[in-house]
Amino acid sequence: MRALFLGFGNVGRAVAEILAHRERYPGLTGADITVVGIVTGSHGAKIDPDGIDLAQALSEFHSSGGFPPALRAGGDIGYDAVVEMTPLDRRRRGEPAITHVREALARGRHAVSANKGPLAWAFRDLSRLARDRGLRFLYETAVMDGVPVFNLVRHGLRGATVHRVEGILNSTTNAILSALERGESFEEALARAQRDGVAEADPGDDLEGWDAAVKVSALANVLMDGDLPPESVAREGIVGVDAARVRETMARGARLKLVGEAWRDADAVQGRVVLREVPMTDPFALVEDTSNILRLVTDLAGRIVITEERPDIRVTAYGVISDLLTLIADAPQRPM
């Protein structure tokens, strides 16, 4: 599988690190994944049709802060799949990631996206284009890192219909709420999350519930055949929450959690992000710090709860690699 990377931020570099040392991971023994191009938005590009030495590329990137300016367009390289790992731009409604995926599919290449924007704003169009071209559009990393949420429903819940999804989906807000329970102020909790690399330098999308809303859209569109853009998700954040409110909630035998959910309402799918008092008897109350949890409510398989405990960047990177391995497994049956 010859891959072209678009973006080389934390996720892209973690993917490269794993692939550069794949001998450390028994499950990747013999994994035929070759990276032939790494293209970034502002840090240049590295292209080698014979395959990039990823260990060398990582060293070069870390030592010089990037690669030389791009000299060739992605269409000039022989590759099988585009791996879209650029940052989400919520204000541009998922661009340029959506265009990257669409152009890859139009060129007859598979697309793997770690960016949730294409699912939130353009899933129906992109999945239809992939299907019409006999290609795959995969996105396991888009929600809950590398936890196989989409693969679970695709392969493990055949014949079942998902009626509702709900989850604690944003690590930053959950870490801050957990810190408030320990007595820290909101400002202290946010600063800690930023020092730990959990929160962005500009954490507005997390604190205002936008990140969770985009994830709710992605889940609703993929798992429930919704057409729900993030702007249509009713949204609440954690701005203004203080330790006193958290302690009052705990005194009532509950914990304060930011919960994203989507459900079927007649012929439409609705969604919201809400700050909720979760009783201690609910599995959601056990999820602390950067951990995430998702509940699927189905007609035939009942209620399924998936928990992700304190993920690191390797978990996110694994989701990308698992999608590439899926493409390899499918290769004999699919045109390239």
The gist of it:
The protein has 336 residues and is α/β, with parallel strands linked by helices. It has helices at residues 10-20, 54-64, 97-106, 117-133, 149-156, 171-181, 186-195, 204-207, 210-223, 243-251, 313-330, and strands at 2-6, 34-39, 45-47, 81-84, 110-113, 137-138, 162-168, 234-235, 254-265, 268-279, 292-298, 303-308.
Textual characterization of the structure:
There is one protein chain. The strands form two sheets. A six-stranded mixed sheet has the order 3-2-1-4-5-6, with helices on both faces. A six-stranded mixed sheet has the order 8-10-9-7-11-12. The chain is globular, with a radius of gyration of 20 Å. Helix 4 (117-133) packs parallel to helix 9 (210-223). The protein starts with a strand and ends in a 6-residue tail after the last helix. The chain is built from eleven helices and twelve strands. The chain has helices at 10-20, 54-64, 97-106, 117-133, 149-156, 171-181, 186-195, 204-207, 210-223, 243-251, 313-330, and strands at residues 2-6, 34-39, 45-47, 81-84, 110-113, 137-138, 162-168, 234-235, 254-265, 268-279, 292-298, 303-308. By secondary structure, it is of the alpha/beta class.
